[in-house]
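Narrative of accomplishments. A recurring question from our advisory board has been how the design workflow behaves on a single, concrete structure rather than in aggregate. To address it, we present the structure tokens for one chain from the evaluation set, followed by the sequence designed for it. No filtering or post-editing was applied between the two.
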């Protein structure tokens, strides 16, 4: 008879306090017939996901809805605001979506006169999306409110902690080519 290995639960923060959702996750996952379970990795990934979803929902509700923008359309418009004109393949990579999604969102942004498409000068097969003056104006009006939301979200951390979290997330991004 095989003896079930006891999984040691490691502390996920200095105080060892877990969120209720983490306790539920641990209780469920430790019952699975798995040889090993990396609870620390689970905690990192699920908390990053939970935070990203919370950020997205907060910003869509409190800022982006006033401009008729979804998270993805804002992400694309933001990238265009920073980059001015971007090839659709690169825009898809930056926004973390497929080229067909970029095409659909670009149509919506074009109807709002926030951007336009143009064919590449060197390669006629390439399509670029360019922000319009109206798109720039919307971003210049929207971004201060968006940034206020960013600051609110990070306000529970000291500046040193914010830098530490940023450095650790960058490390994960680089290690995974995200």
């Amino acid at each position: 008879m095989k003896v079930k290995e006891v999984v040691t639960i490691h502390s996920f923060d200095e105080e060892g306090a877990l969120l209720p959702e983490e306790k539920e996750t641990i209780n469920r996952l430790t019952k699975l017939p798995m040889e090993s379970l990396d609870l620390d990795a689970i905690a990192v990934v699920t908390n990053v996901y939970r935070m990203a979803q919370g950020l997205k929902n907060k910003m869509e509700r409190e800022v982006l809805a006033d401009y008729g923008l979804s998270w993805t359309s804002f992400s694309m418009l933001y990238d265009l605001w920073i980059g001015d004109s971007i090839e659709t393949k690169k825009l898809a990579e930056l926004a973390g979506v497929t080229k067909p999604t970029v095409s659909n969102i670009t149509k919506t942004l074009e109807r709002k006169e926030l951007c336009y498409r143009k064919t590449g000068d060197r390669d006629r097969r390439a399509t670029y999306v360019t922000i319009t003056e109206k798109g720039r104006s919307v971003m210049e009006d929207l971004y201060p409110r968006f940034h206020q939301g960013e600051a609110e979200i990070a306000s529970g951390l000291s500046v040193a902690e914010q830098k530490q979290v940023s450095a650790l997330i960058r490390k994960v991004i680089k290690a995974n080519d995200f």
